[in-house]
Write a structure and sequence with these properties.
Distance between the termini: 98 Å
Helix content: 40-55%
Shape: rod-shaped
CATH architecture of the domain at 297-440: 2-Layer Sandwich
CATH class of the domain at 297-440: Alpha Beta
CATH superfamily of the domain at 297-440: Histidine kinase-like ATPase, C-terminal domain
Oligomer: single chain
Strand order of the largest sheet: 2-1-5-4-3
Strand content: 15-25%
Radius of gyration: 57 Å
CATH topology of the domain at 297-440: Heat Shock Protein 90
C-alpha cells in the first residue's frame, strides 16, 4: 500500500505537470498576436475572459490568471469544492522571472501549481494558478488486481511455509525423540548403545556429544566401581574392627572380676558370658569371611528388661545402674541388642569428665504400644553444632575410635522397627530407644 500510494502520488504529479504545460501553451497561443491588447489588465481580461472557460473545459482543470500586481484577471471554476481557493487578490503573488513551477498542497488532496509566463511584448508576466484534485480514496483497478495476485502468492507461500515448518519440525522432533529414548536407556552399570548420524548438522553434533558421553560414562563407571569396592572394604573393615572391639571390653572386665571372685557359681556365670561374647566374635569373623557381611537379624521374642540388665551388668562397678518397671517383651536379635547396649553404655561412660564420678542410669519402661529404654549420663552434653551429626558415620568427638558406634546403633534399631533420639544439656545426655511392644 505504501508503494502504491507513492506510485500514485508520482503519477498525479507527472499528470498535473503535463496538463499544466498544456494549459500554459494554450494560454500563450490565445494571447499570441494580441500585443496591442494584452498590455493592460482590461485588455487581458477581454482576450482571456471569453476563452478561459473553454480552456478549463478542454483540460478539465480549474484555472486562475493573475496580473503581476496580484489582481485576478480571470478564472474558470468547474468544481464546486474549488470555489474560494482562487482569491481575487493575492499578497505578492509574483514570482521571479523564469523561476519555474511551484506546487503546494491545499486541503490534503488539492494540488495548487503556480507558474509564470511572459507576455508577447515581454514587459508583463502573468501568474497562472492551476488546481488539481487528487482522489486518494480509490486504488486503480489494475493495482487492485495486482494486490489480489499478491495476496494469493503470499497465501500460497504461507501455506507452503507452514507445510515445510511441519515437515522440518516433525523431522527434528522424531530424531530428538530417538535421542531422548536412547538417553532414557542410559545406565551406569551396563554397556550403552551409541547412535549413528550421517549429517554434520546440529543433531549430528548432539549425537556426537552423546557418544562421547557414553564413552566417558563407561570409563567413569569402571572407576566408580573400583572406588566403591575400595570404599566398601574400608568401611567394612572399620565396622568389623568396631564390632570386635565391643565384646572385648566386657570380656576384659569379666576376667578382672574372675580374678577377684571366689564364688564358683559366679565364676561359671562370668565364664558363660565370656563364651557368649567369644561366640559373637566367631560369628562376626565368619560373616566377614562371607564377603564382609554382618550377621543377619534373628528376631525372637525376648524380655528386654532381662536382656538389657544382662548386657549392662558388666559395667556395674563403673557407675552404671539399672532399673525396670518389670518384664516387657519385644522382638529383637539378642546378639545385636547386646551390641547396642554396649555401645550406648560405653559412650555414656566416656562422656563423663575425669574429674567427675560417672553416674550412668539405664531404665526400661513401657506403655501400651512401645517399650522405652533410656541411657542417661551425667557428662557435659553434646554441643549445639554437633547435635545434627551425632548419628552420622565416621563422626566422633573422642580422641580415639572410628565414629561408627552411634551410626551403627541407629541402623540396628531401625532394622528392629524402632527409633532412637536424644536429649542433651550441660548436665548430661539421655538416649531414648523406642521399640514396638509385644503383649502376651
Amino acid at each position: 500500500m505504501y508503494h502504491f500510494k507513492k506510485e500514485t502520488k508520482e503519477y498525479h504529479n507527472e499528470r498535473f505537470e503535463r496538463k499544466e504545460r498544456a494549459i500554459i501553451s494554450h494560454i500563450e497561443y490565445v494571447i499570441s498576436g494580441q500585443d496591442s491588447v494584452v498590455g493592460t489588465v482590461e485588455g487581458l481580461r477581454a482576450v482571456l475572459g471569453s476563452r478561459i472557460k473553454e480552456i478549463g473545459s478542454i483540460h478539465k482543470l480549474d484555472i486562475g490568471i493573475y496580473h503581476p500586481q496580484g489582481e485576478l484577471i480571470t478564472k474558470s471554476i468547474l468544481q464546486n469544492q474549488n470555489k474560494g481557493v482562487l482569491q481575487s487578490k493575492v499578497n505578492s503573488p509574483k514570482a521571479p522571472k523564469h523561476s519555474g513551477r511551484k506546487v503546494s498542497e491545499y486541503g490534503g488532496n488539492l494540488l495548487v501549481s503556480t507558474s509564470v509566463i511572459i507576455t508577447p511584448i515581454g514587459t508583463e508576466d502573468l501568474i497562472i494558478k492551476t488546481l488539481y484534485r487528487v482522489d486518494n480514496s480509490t486504488i486503480p483497478e489494475g493495482e487492485i488486481d495486482f494486490l489480489k495476485q499478491l495476496v494469493y502468492v503470499y497465501l500460497f507461500l504461507l501455506l507452503l511455509g507452514i507445510l515445510l515448518a511441519f515437515i522440518l519440525s516433525n523431522y527434528i522432533s522424531q530424531n530428538m525423540k530417538r535421542v531422548i529414548e536412547q538417553l532414557k536407556k542410559v545406565r551406569l552399570n551396563k554397556s550403552n548403545e551409541k547412535l549413528d548420524w550421517r549429517f554434520n548438522d546440529e543433531i549430528g553434533e548432539l549425537i556426537q556429544q552423546y557418544n562421547v558421553m557414553v564413552d566417558k560414562l563407561e570409563q567413569t563407571a569402571v572407576e566408580l566401581a573400583t572406588t566403591e569396592r575400595e570404599s566398601a572394604w574400608k568401611e567394612m573393615a572399620q565396622q568389623v574392627a568396631h564390632e570386635i572391639k565391643n565384646p572385648l571390653t566386657p570380656m576384659r572386665l569379666s576376667l578382672q572380676m574372675m580374678e577377684r571372685e571366689k564364688d564358683i557359681s559366679e565364676v561359671r556365670d562370668m565364664a558363660s558370658n565370656l563364651l557368649e561374647e567369644v561366640e559373637n566374635l566367631t560369628n562376626i569373623a565368619e560373616a566377614f569371611s562371607r564377603f564382609a557381611q554382618m550377621p543377619g537379624l534373628k528376631l525372637k521374642r525376648f524380655d528386654l528388661s532381662y536382656q538389657t540388665n544382662r548386657a549392662v551388668a558388666l559395667y556395674s562397678d563403673r557407675g552404671v545402674s539399672f532399673s525396670s518397671s518389670g518384664p516387657v517383651y519385644a522382638k529383637i536379635d539378642k546378639e545385636q541388642w547386646s551390641r547396642i547396649m554396649h555401645n550406648l553404655v560405653k559412650n555414656a561412660i566416656q562422656s563423663v569428665p575425669d574429674d567427675r564420678n560417672a553416674e550412668i542410669r539405664v531404665r526400661v519402661n513401657s506403655n501400651n504400644q512401645y517399650v522405652l529404654i533410656c541411657v542417661e549420663d551425667n557428662g557435659e552434653g553434646i554441643p549445639d553444632y554437633m547435635q545434627e551429626r551425632v548419628f552420622e558415620p565416621n563422626f566422633t568427638t573422642k580422641n580415639s575410635g572410628m565414629g561408627l558406634g552411634l551410626a551403627m546403633v541407629k541402623n540396628l534399631i531401625e532394622n528392629l522397627g524402632g527409633s532412637i533420639r536424644f536429649n542433651t544439656s550441660p548436665r548430661g545426655t539421655e538416649f531414648i530407644i523406642e521399640l514396638p511392644i509385644i503383649i502376651d
